[in-house]
UniProtKB/TrEMBL annotation:
<comment type="similarity">
    <text>In the N-terminal section; belongs to the glucose-6-phosphate dehydrogenase family.</text>
</comment>
<dbReference type="InterPro" id="IPR019796">
    <property type="entry name" value="G6P_DH_AS"/>
</dbReference>
<feature type="domain" description="Glucosamine/galactosamine-6-phosphate isomerase">
    <location>
        <begin position="571"/>
        <end position="793"/>
    </location>
</feature>
<keyword id="KW-0378">Hydrolase</keyword>
<dbReference type="InterPro" id="IPR036291">
    <property type="entry name" value="NAD(P)-bd_dom_sf"/>
</dbReference>
<keyword id="KW-0313">Glucose metabolism</keyword>
<keyword id="KW-0732">Signal</keyword>
<keyword id="KW-0520">NAD</keyword>
<keyword id="KW-0119">Carbohydrate metabolism</keyword>
<protein>
    <recommendedName>
        <fullName>GDH/6PGL endoplasmic bifunctional protein</fullName>
        <ecNumber>1.1.1.363</ecNumber>
        <ecNumber>1.1.1.47</ecNumber>
        <ecNumber>3.1.1.31</ecNumber>
    </recommendedName>
</protein>
<dbReference type="InterPro" id="IPR022674">
    <property type="entry name" value="G6P_DH_NAD-bd"/>
</dbReference>
<keyword id="KW-0521">NADP</keyword>
<dbReference type="Pfam" id="PF01182">
    <property type="entry name" value="Glucosamine_iso"/>
</dbReference>
<dbReference type="InterPro" id="IPR005900">
    <property type="entry name" value="6-phosphogluconolactonase_DevB"/>
</dbReference>
<dbReference type="InterPro" id="IPR022675">
    <property type="entry name" value="G6P_DH_C"/>
</dbReference>
<dbReference type="GO" id="GO:0050661">
    <property type="term" value="F:NADP binding"/>
</dbReference>
<comment type="pathway">
    <text>Carbohydrate degradation; pentose phosphate pathway; D-ribulose 5-phosphate from D-glucose 6-phosphate (oxidative stage): step 2/3.</text>
</comment>
Amino acid sequence: MLAEPFNWHPGMWNMLIVAMCLALLGCLQAQELQGHVSIILLGATGDLAKKYLWQGLFQLYLDEAGRGHSFSFHGAALTAPKQGQELMAKALESLSCPKDMAPSHCAEHKDQFLQLSRYRQLKTAEDYQALNKDIEAQLQHAGLREAGRIFYFSVPPFAYEDIARNINSSCRPGPGTWLRVVLEKPFGHDHFSAQQLATELGTFFQEEEMYRVDHYLGKQAVAQILPFRDQNRKALGSLWNRQHVERVEIVMKETVDAEGRTSFYEEYGVIRDVLQNHLTEVLTLVAMELPHNVSSAEAVLRHKLQVFQALRGLQRGSAIVGQYQSYSEQVRRELQKPDSFHSLTPTFAAVLVHIDNLRWEGVPFILMSGKALDERVGYARILFKNQACCVQSEKHWAAAQSQCLPRQLVFHIGHGDLGSPAVLVSRNLFRPSLPSSWKEMEGPPGLRLFGSPLSDYYAYSPVQERDAHSVLLSHIFHGRKDSFITTENLLASWDFWTPLLESLAHKAPRLYPGGAENGRLLDFEFSSGRLFFSQQQPEQLVPGPGPAPMPSDFQVLRAKYRESPLVSAWSEELISKLANDIEATAVRAVRRFGQFHLALSGGSSPVALFQQLATAHYGFPWAHTHLWLVDERCVPLSDPESNFQGLQAHLLQHVRIPYYNIHPMPVHLQQRLCAEEDQGAQIYAREISALVANSSFDLVLLGMGADGHTASLFPQSPTGLDGEQLVVLTTSPSQPHRRMSLSLPLINRAKKVAVLVMGRMKREITTLVSRVGHEPKKWPISGVLPHSGQLVWYMDYDAFLG
Ligand code: BG6
């Protein structure tokens, strides 16, 4: 039992001092006294404290008290002293000792620890001042030198500011000592909010005083990545690169769902909850250049940052997202939302990451996590390339020698069939060296992992399993900053994830039933920088509560828009419909005329279409296709702003199209951009007239701007809206202002025009344009109506239904 609430009467002083002296006795004989450490656990009666932190502090005490430090533990919360004291006593009831400790010893240590632990209410500025006074008085009474103070914030982020201000103004220890404040995620919601929070904390604490916890960095298998790479430098030196690594998978699967936590989860979703932090941290440890000295925190953190700098930006197509079927219902129930509410928060995500540096160029890193999946497991798996062919039959293959067996290295974080942290190295790779705190392990007979029997691996597990928080508490105590997230690293990570999060904000996740029933529904594939579900499943038109939808509930909406056919669906389905239609048109044109002339728009909307065409349309007659540009910015063709660059990055480099069939707009002639005297527009027009029969494209793909512009034909600017010119130079209201564009008369000569409109930003103009007549001067898009061809609108639900 704990003592009465903390009123510092003389009897209490004596008790505490006696406890501290007793605890110090052993170490005084062995070593010099290293100073006193006060640990203040804020949120001492909360869930995290109950589950992990008190046990971690007890472990810290067991590990360190004998080495010359003395401790006092202050459990703090807003709760009034009496009630808080009781709650804390409950949290401390279940402390356990290491398995190999004798029960009598255990009882003795526990008793000492309880004597050193006190509850106190920390609510007002005066409470913090009193805490400081008490620590000082306690040190003085016992004649102890102060080493430092640790404040562990196990509280929600909204409470940070107040606590931080109070610590800064009244609880800083004196000169020659250290202050460490420990913070738990979430550290913001996106780059902006993370930056705000960091700035706020930066007004109270120095960078070196802050320890941001990512508990995955305390998982034993994760904490072993760098030491393992270091100890096995010789074997890994030549293997750890794009020549040898096929791909890297970083995975955290869970069986639990978000029930009971939807108020948090609805705000965050799986990418913010797990990928942005835990999985990204693992990725950096796998991918970073190994510092010469892996124990140098400064070098580790610097190398980590370099990984962030080399990450290729994510596109919408880099990720797939899912949501377990009952999630929306749980949100409606827990957050009192109306029946019509449907959440778009992903509970499952897989993301394809590329690292553009010499070591990793071209190697896919797949990050994947989800709730309500079939098993709980976490790992980082490095799969090596294998181009060996074995002549002897399989029965003669020996695990240690055969190059035909899979070659992989797995940092098994925990759970799964193995049930514990482990490091697995295929026997045909090399025999690894691990520190003595890891031992060779055996699993249950017949156990297979990652496609091979366990016996095909050198398998190691920790001699003593330790909880992540306990590992991290020890690292905080020893000031090992490399196990924590610095402000710079945090912001670099948000910088990387925020654009993807924004682009997915309105994407409808694929629904999955949960658990084993998911079957193959979430299986995915990747190629050309894109991830996609292996199985096609059209999105639900109007998802509603009730039983799981049947395939017949899914459909693509067909209707009319401005008297022309309209195809509408969720974006993913819309893009695949449009890609199919383009392929069908191409095949028909090539069959009839021997070639297909396609004019494409730039901008962001068609990117997903280009990627779809590049990856999923093997029957496309590229060899007979001529590609033209609908419009172009007056920048060099190698400029990232150039429409041609977009086409090149997302389509051309992935398909086999004769280079003489590609027709970029000549915006850059004589080392000048769109100079009238260079006659670029006329040159392009002549090229079209010479190659395209009747100057009539088989298909023109257009977009529609929020101001009603199409191609580079802008409202209130007469250029290109009528007349004889096929190609014109125009002026855009936004930068870069100078543009080259097909004219409206040329567009209207096409056999088919498809207009692709996507995203909420287009909702207003979509509504407006649906009502206006033929007014190209105000809304150039309203002038699109092929004379003898067909016009089809492709709109996603965000743009069309709102
Ligand atoms: C937390 C997430 O950070 O990690 C949870 O907020 C998730 O959603 C948990 O369940 C998983 O951690 P562990 O240690 O159980 O793998």
